[in-house]
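Note to self: keep these together.
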Amino acid sequence: ILARIGGRPGHIFNLGHGVLPDTPVEHVKNLVQFIHTTTRTKR
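Structure:
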């Protein structure tokens, strides 16, 4: 997903759907942290 947006600003990474109920919360936290860290460096 990040490669497809090519560093363009304005993309909203939404976890509103698509996360299965049995997904470990720690995995979701790690994903959010990764997105924040990765996109912050491109601003």
